[in-house]
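REVIEWER CHECKLIST
Item 1: Sequence provided? yes
Item 2: Single chain? yes
Item 3: Sequence as submitted:
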Amino acid sequence: MYKRLELHNHTTESDAVFTCQELVDFMAADGVDAFALTDHNTISGHRKVRQILENTAPALSAIYGMEYTTYYGHILCLNLTEYVPWENINRHKPELLFRAAREKGALCGIAHPFSYGWPFARGCRFEMTMTDYSCCDFIEIFNNPEPLHEVNEKGLALWEELVFEGWNLAATCGMDLHGNSSLHGHYSTYIEGEKGGAVAQELERAIRRGRTWVCKGPLLETEAEDGRVRFSLHQTGKPGYEALPRERYLVTLDWKAGSMTCRLDEEIPLSAFGRDMRVIPKLFEDEAVLENLVCVSPAIQI
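Item 4: Structure as written out by the authors:
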């Protein structure tokens, strides 16, 4: 089964208007499988959310984390259960903090790398000098409230470029939720999991393997066997998304040396990609333009 995750959320423990209880209620009402608690520079809400879930929403799971919020960029940590000091953050060696958090079992990624900040606050754009991406686990390619072209398109392009260079990075997205805002029409992160499975472990496995989907509703599934790539579609039933007839969807395949557009029922020979080892599939409605993008799928390893 697939699980829908909302991986970037804040409460009154930092700068949001939602209390921990209100955040839990909000996520439960929208039918998410799990949500992340990622307050700025604090894990003070972890204990509160655990208690709330135990008492009022046992069917909902939480992923405990934090958003390191610095003058040079924001680092999103998931499965972070222990506060890791960051006061000596080195703008030119951010890998030191990434590694320190990972040593505590956290998954570490770059949040909204091209953000303007709101209202144009210093620090939201990732301006650290990152040279070793082996200590980074994911890139937040879509921060839903941010402008599509000016911010999110660049985040998507950064992730694709790094994947094509050979870095093992998953793609995620988030609402960067600070208050009551509809989740309909926005991207969510999906992973594979089991009913009743431990979502923290499932998330770690998905991130490590690059098996994450960023989508608004339908998941584009791919299979590379017998020398060909085949596609299938899985409608998640995400609230607010109205499924289209199958023939209205288009698939794009991008790799380091080229790209192509095809239909869901087409089979693409692996020889079409030449010597390139990683291909990124994306699903669009009607036309392959960013405004119509509904799903970014895991990279195909050729």
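Item 5: Key structural point noted by reviewer: The first strand starts at residue 2 and ends at 6.
Item 6: Recommendation: ____
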